[in-house]
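wait is this the right file?? whatever heres the structure
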């Protein structure tokens, strides 16, 4: 039987859907999914929490073999997310708004999946 490569995009999309529902249940409003800023990168979810604009990185894992999901949000990834967030603010003409970066870590291999919300993660 041939080995099928994992569909990482599908896994990411299911993790993002879980994260969006989780955040909405906490009262946040999702205003954008998968915002791309040129070749700089992408932000998984953009939400509002009251008057605060929240840029959300979603990391999900199907096993613990490569560490926790939050460990994948490296310094380099944080730098990219900041650049993309600046791009979002620029494109939308937002100049005076409180912003923060959250991380949603999802361990899909647990039943039910474990979701951790790191508010103001970096």
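ok assuming it is, sequence goes like this
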């Amino acid at each position: 039987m041939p080995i099928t490569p994992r569909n990482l995009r599908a896994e990411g999309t299911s993790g993002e859907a879980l994260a969006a529902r989780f955040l909405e249940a906490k009262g946040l409003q999702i205003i954008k999914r998968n915002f791309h800023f040129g070749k700089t990168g992408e932000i998984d979810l953009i939400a509002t929490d009251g008057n605060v604009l929240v840029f959300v990185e979603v990391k999900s894992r199907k096993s613990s073999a490569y560490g926790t999901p939050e460990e994948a949000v490296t310094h380099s990834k944080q730098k990219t997310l900041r650049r993309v967030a600046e791009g979002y603010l620029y494109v939308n003409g937002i100049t005076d708004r409180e912003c923060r970066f959250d991380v949603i870590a999802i361990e899909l291999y647990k039943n039910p999946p474990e979701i951790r919300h790191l508010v103001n993660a970096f």
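The chain has a mean pLDDT of 91. so i think its the right one actually
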